[in-house]
Every structure is written in C-alpha cells, then in structure tokens.
Amino acid sequence: MKQTPRRIKLGLMLQGAGGFMNAWRHHRVPVDASVNVSWYRQLARQAEEAGLDFLFVADGLHINEKSLPHFLNRFEPLALLSSLTAVTQRIGLAGTISTSYSDPFTVARQLASLDLLSNGRAGWNVVTSPLAGSARNFGREHPEHGQRYQIAGEYIEVVQGLWDSWEEDAFIRDRQSGVFFDANKLHKLNHQGEHFTVEGPLNIQRSAQGQPVIFQAGASESGIRLAAASADAVFTNARTLEEAQHYATRLQQEAQMAGRQPPGIFPGINPIIGATLAEAEEKYQYLLSLLSLEQALDYLGRFFDHHDFSQYDPDGPFPDLGELGQNSFRSTTDQVKRQATEENLTLREAAYRTALPKGDFFGTPQQVAETLIRWVEQGAASGFILCGPVLNEALEDITRLVLPILEARGYWYQDDRSTLRERLEIPVRPNRYTQARSRLQQAERSAC
Amino acid sequence: MKQTPRRIKLGLMLQGAGGFMNAWRHHRVPVDASVNVSWYRQLARQAEEAGLDFLFVADGLHINEKSLPHFLNRFEPLALLSSLTAVTQRIGLAGTISTSYSDPFTVARQLASLDLLSNGRAGWNVVTSPLAGSARNFGREHPEHGQRYQIAGEYIEVVQGLWDSWEEDAFIRDRQSGVFFDANKLHKLNHQGEHFTVEGPLNIQRSAQGQPVIFQAGASESGIRLAAASADAVFTNARTLEEAQHYATRLQQEAQMAGRQPPGIFPGINPIIGATLAEAEEKYQYLLSLLSLEQALDYLGRFFDHHDFSQYDPDGPFPDLGELGQNSFRSTTDQVKRQATEENLTLREAAYRTALPKGDFFGTPQQVAETLIRWVEQGAASGFILCGPVLNEALEDITRLVLPILEARGYWYQDDRSTLRERLEIPVRPNRYTQARSRLQQAERSAC
C-alpha cells in the first residue's frame, strides 16, 4: 500500500568544507573552511533560506597528526551554534557534546542557553566519545563501551531533570508588586545516581520549545538501546537502503520495549548530483583528483588497523588480508572486501572508492529524489542530514535541483515554524512538576 | 607631578537589568532582562557604538530561592558571548568561567572558539567559585579557598599551554600540493601536574590576538597573587579610592615579585548621574522606591551571616551587633557599622544605603568625570567596568554626558582597533615553540 507523501525533513552538517576528506582543496570553498566564520554563516543563511530544518555540528575530543583536515582545527559546537543564533531565525541548531567528558550541570546550562538564545531551536547530539585518546585530554580513564552508554543514559536523565528546574509559569515578574518568581515553581533535582550526584536547581528557564531536542548517533547495540530509550531523533551512517532498514527495525523493536515512539531517523548523505549522469561522473572525477593515491591508501588503512597498503602494487588486485579488518569497522571492511571481489577492483580503485563512495545518492536530480523518497517510503528515514561531499555545492544542488522534484511529488514544502520540535514534529516534554500538579488536580476534581 | 592624560578604558557588565538588585523593576528595562536576547544585543551594539572596549559577563554556579533576580535565571557566559560575535565587530567579549568546576581542555576549546569567532576579541574572567553549594551541582567536594587558587594557577597554565598547540604558521593549506599543515608546528602539551593531566594537542588554531585575554577577579591575598602571576587585567569591587589604591599597591608588589607587569585594574562602578545634583538625587530616590524595606533588610542580613534585621525598629538606631559580621564580608560589615555610627543612621537608612550605595560615582557629569580621572591618575584604575545600577541608563549617561568631558580633557577617544589585546594594550603572548625556535636560530646565528 502506497503511503501518503509526507514532508521529508532535512539537516545540514556544518563540518569544514564537507564530509569528503579533501573537500578543502575544492576550488569553490575557502581552504580554511573548518574555522571560517563567514563560510558557516553563509551556509547557515542559505540552508535557512532553502527551508532546511536544522544545522548539525559534529565533534571530536582527540586529534593527532593523522587526523582528517576538518578534525584538526575546528570550532567547539556550542560556541559555533551560539554564534549562529544571531544570523538565523527558523533553522534548528543541533550540536554534539560528549557525555563521557563533561559535567551535566554545565552542559544543561549551555544547551538551555542556546535554546533560549535561539528562541527554541536547540538540539543536542549525545555521543559517548569512541576515541580512547580523549581520556588523555581529560586526565581520566576511558570508560569501556557498555559503561559509556550507561553513563550517557543517566547523564541525559540528569540534564532533562535540570531542565525541569523552573516550571513554565514560574517567573511572575510583576513590576508593580515586586514579585519576581513563584518559589513553589522552582525545584531542586536532588539526583543521586550511580555516576552522578547533582542537586540543582538550574539557573535558567525553559525555552519556547520547552527543552532542547535530543539526537543520538550510536549505531552499536548499546547505542540503539540508548536512542530508543532517550532520543527524539537519530543520526545514522547507513550506506545502503538495506542497512538503513535493518537499523530502523532494530530501533523500532527497542523503542517498543522501552514503551516509546521510535525516534526519527536521519541518515547522513553525501550526494553527487549532475544534470546528466555524465555530469555527475565529471564531478566525481574532479573530487577524486583532489585526493592522492597515498592519501587514499592511508585512509583505507584506517579501517584495517592502520595496515600499510602502500606495500602493494596499486594496480594489482585487492590484496588478500585474511582476518585483518575484523575490528570495530567490520561492516565497512567487509563491504570493501566484498566489493573488491565482486567488481574485480584494483587496490587503487578500492581505495578511492572507500575514500569517496558513489553510493545511493549519486546521479541525476530525478534519481537522487527517487532514492530519497524510496528511503522514506520504506521506513528507513524520516529525513536526511546533508554532509557533503562538498557542502556549498551539495546544498545548492539539493536546493536548486532536487527540492523542486520532491515538492512536485508532495514530499517537500517550506515549513516556516520556528522551534526545532515543531519542525521535526516532536511533542514538547511537559515539565514533570507541572504535569504532576495537573494530574493531582484532575484526581481531586474527579474525586469530588 | 601631573601625568599625561591616557585614554580611560571602559567595559560594560552584561548582567540582567543591571547591578542594582531590583533593577528589573525599573520602568525603562524589560522585566525579563537577564534572559532577554534583544536587550543584550542592543546594549552590546550601543556599547560598541559608544566606543567601549569590552563586554563582561559574570557568572555563578549555584542558586537557591534567596538568590538575587539576575542570578536566578541567566545565560551561561560562553553561549551568550558567542551569540554576540555576530552583532558586534570591535568590542571585546569577556566571560566568567570557573576553574573549580570545569575541564581545562573544554574551556580552552570554547574560549579559543569564541576568540576565533570574534576575530580576536575574547577574554576569560578566571574565578574559583566561592559558593560551597556549587560543589553539590557537580557531585564533588568544594576545595577550600587556598586550594581553589592553587588549582586555578595550574588550570591557567594548562589552558595557555593548550592554546600553544598550533604555531601561528602551522596551517599551510596549499590547494595545489594538497599540503594542509606542517606537522612540526603541531605540539602536544603533555602536562602532568598536581591537579591536571592533559595531553593535547588542542583542535583549534590561534586567533587574531593569539590567545584570549585573562581577567581575574579575586580580591583575597590568594586572589591577588594569582592575578599578579597570571592575569592581564583584574576586575575589582573597590568602593573608595583608598581601597582601590591599597589594592593597586598590593597587586603591584606581587607582580614585581612574580617578575611581571602588573595587570590593568578595572573597578566595577554603578554611577548615578544627573545634570544637577538634585536630578541625581531624584534618580537615586526613584531606585530606592523599587526596593521594599523587607528586601533591604534581608539584603543587609546577607553580609551578617543572615542575621534577621526585621526584629528591630527600622526607624530606631542601627543595632549593636557585637562580634556579628566578622566574616568573609568583613570589609563591608565594618563599613556599614562605621557609617551608621558616624552619620547617626537609622537601621532603615543603613539598609537602603547598603543595598544601593551612592558611592564615589554619584553626582553631575562633571563630578563623575573628575572622579574617574582622579582614580586613574592616582594609579587606582586603568579603566572601569560599568555595572549599573541600571544598565541602559548608566550607559547612556556615561556616553552622552561623561565621555565628552573625558574627551575634552584628553582621557577619551574612539579607538577603532578590533582585538581585545590591542584595545587594552596587552602584548600578544608569542607561541612558546615559535619563540624557542627563534631563540635557537638567533643563538646559532650569533655562534657563526
């Protein structure tokens, strides 16, 4: 049965010149894109103008000399997003903050501030920091995977609890009488958990959307469980429709077990769009020309425990690696090996294909639009986050070429609502104390 | 010997409606000033237009139902200042962050981000969080006073070390060759101290002013020593010229012992200015009318270990309190007692005088200008931070009535330089590795 078309939601990932590791060399982007204020402001304005729903800022807490260009030198997400509150009006502002290396009281305040500064447009992408090196920047032990997710679960609980410190109508602010607030509507949290002890109250009120939207990005089993239990939306990295559907099913199951609506799913995409297939191929080849063989092989090695691929003939067949690659990147390494065998790729071809996949979103505007619709119709996505490969080009192509097709098909229209919850159709979380009071009053009324 | 006039530097404290506890009731300010984005944007633009040097955001990490209105509900400083980067161009952006309840890696990143987003206008007001209640929001013990300052000293060292991670010319960004950076100009900090272990490097480059300016606000002996050893500027609360001079002398002594130039001194001021003295008095009486006797007595009690002053006849003489008040507010409590005796004040008068002192900056524009000049000439200040009592009124009065007098006397002109260091005449901190390399090269040259 064909579903009724629903508006596809769209985010834009602000990450340097774009998701492609050498996007900074593209002739149309500033070489310092990852720390270029004007670049981000312009993208933010363009995205809002085009009607996109939110901006999304990723993050990382550890670099070394091998890190990708846009990781080496970038703005901290909260600072960047706060700076964009003044140049935008309706677009959401979501940013990544780690629950493994921060304090819930401070993070609750900073996000609530962003939410109030933006008039209800803040989102928090909860991550647990996978890189063990992060720990060395914070003088702590790196918690193991499962524990990181337990910490994250409790952390979100604390932050959402602090966000309930002030009821909606707690501030009276009557100039005449001098009454500033109602002390009955100010609440301490008094949280005492396994990982956190936080008294509260928080020193900032609710925003136009009540509380910031919670994003989550973990694809592991623990990540899916956390998302199902706590998130309003998830950012995923699915490369194929099948992968995306599998993830959606798992998330749905876990949400059902947690007694919640499943969060909206937002796969990151790197479309390469040309008026014709030949034009798309031309763009693809131009991007490949920005990447040296050495870089492509080095990048490939990252997925295979930093294996040195430069020892092989690049134009020979993809080498037999045996067990190598059975690590945390296994879904990628399996795919690389399978593709190399099936399509008889040389090492050079496999390396370039890994560094810059063509993927499902390569082709003409019509093809890309069809794919976006198919993913949504098949229940694999509520929307997408545009990650690159090169941000300004991808945003222009989507806006100019793809959105008109989606609009004609009923999957797109300009939504001028201004809180992030409204745009993503996520209900406001009522304040827990207000809710309890209103339940009590209802009970009293029905007892009469 | 008369000194040559030097430009007086001016900051504006963004703190709700202003430093006066009931400023929110003033008919010319929005009742929600402390979380009103438009209010802050407008003050920021007006201050920049008037040629002020910086905005300054205070902070606190603990509230309860007794807290002052502008503390109960306010923006976190980093978020607020970042949001102001987009609506200002030249004015400095300084904010308070506690070294007792945060991580140096995150704080270094956020401040460096603010500095880069604002093109070299960031300042950090280092505080150690006096309120023990803060600890309960972070699930830790509250370090005792001396230890807090030791932690702060090491913390600043770590942050400044992280800010040196990338040398000035580390980023090559050659589109043609594909070389993004020079790995020789990227440095790990590898700090292992008593309180912090931080590896680095930081994932963000230097700004137009190299590193953010360090403010410090502690007036205790430990505070003065920390300021002398680490700060570029200090924010003080001196009420009289004598107090300010005494502080300046102590700071100078400590700076000399630390082998540094003494930091610039910025007393916070709450001027009440009228075209005539009668007009100033009228303003003062209007402000007093916004404060109930109950609030004034309660406020007075805060300095005397929450003593209940409502038990006395408000129109009787100031009560004999014996030892009460020999606490950490002693300089205030001594002054209250002395003034009450000397001027034969009733309790009511003493309470109102404490909640809203007239102070040294009460009077006609000519008188206030003379006082500002006197403080600077007597070495008690390099400039001032305008704190209230009501921000928009004080800013307008200073701009419209006082600055022209200062200008005519040679103590003021519009400075259009755009980094905070330039405006405050604080030299750029050279990158330690660049400096070491250049010393080595010099030594090699002279050895030839």
UniProtKB/TrEMBL annotation, chains A, B:
Residues 35-381 form the Luciferase-like domain. It comes from the Bacteria. GO terms for molecular function: monooxygenase activity; oxidoreductase activity, acting on paired donors, with incorporation or reduction of molecular oxygen. The keyword Flavoprotein applies. Keywords: Flavoprotein, FMN, Monooxygenase, Oxidoreductase. Pfam families: Bac_luciferase. InterPro entries: Diverse_substr_monoxygenases (IPR051260), Luciferase-like_dom (IPR011251), Luciferase-like_sf (IPR036661), NTA_MOA (IPR016215). FMN binds at residues 59, 96, 145, 149, 220. Belongs to the NtaA/SnaA/DszA monooxygenase family. NCBIfam families: FMN_nitrolo. This is Monooxygenase. It comes from Erwinia tasmaniensis (strain DSM 17950 / CFBP 7177 / CIP 109463 / NCPPB 4357 / Et1/99).
